[in-house]
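User: Can you help me understand a structure? I only have the sequence.
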Amino acid sequence: MELQGRTAIVTGGNSGIGAAIVAELGARGANVVIDYVTGAPAADALEAQVEGTGAQAITVEADVSKVADLQRLVDSALQRFGRLDVMVNNAGIETRTSVLDTTEDQYDRVLAVNLKSAFFGTQLAAKAMIASGAGGVVINVSSVHEDWPMPGNTPYCLSKGGMRMLTRTAAQELGPHRIRVVGVGPGAIATPINAATLANPDELRILDAAIPLGRMARPEEVAHVVAFLAGDGADYVTGSTFFVDGGLMHSSPGL
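Assistant: Let's start by predicting it. Here is the structure, written out as tokens:
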């Protein structure tokens, strides 16, 4: 229970990687604020799961593309638990569109949910951590595509590349306040965002063959890394992205 008594916010916390992160942080003793936009029943079920481990959780409906909603997440953590120790900027979407066919609305939405939310989530969480005097950690859930081009998914890659530099730069600025900023870059993960690939045996076979470990990751395998980075064992870690990709980035051309 190495996170006992600490409080974490997880954006996009009721499905996929976010839900696995919530469950893992709760299992390690953290109190968790679960952000969601849709899927309230899933968020409520996850709240009950966390509380079943002895930790506490609350759900907050918040659109993280809006700064006011991000502030409400931070305020909810402080009001309910009296502190904020870990901010996990996990929420993300994609349009699977190229440079030539991306619309302004698609571009704006992807950058707002993926990058704007991470920037202001980092800012607002850091202000709360500085005010407390206790420091903390911000974890940006990025992607292998912060480094690795993915033709046909350009806005997503732009947003993840921006998260990479947010992590590096904010780590420099916030280090004197005892706030660590780290990135986690998942590769191919068995989540709803990859449902089409999971449902297509031929596509799944090609993807698995491109991964040195031979398979997609489970969301829980990303959550384990996030929880480690949130804890004391990673106290000297900041400014880096840790890729959870089975070796995918260093084995094949972009997929």
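Now, to help you interpret it: The beta strands are 7-10, 31-36, 57-61, 86-89, 136-141, 179-186, 241-244. DSSP finds eight helices and seven strands in the chain. Let me know which part you'd like to focus on.
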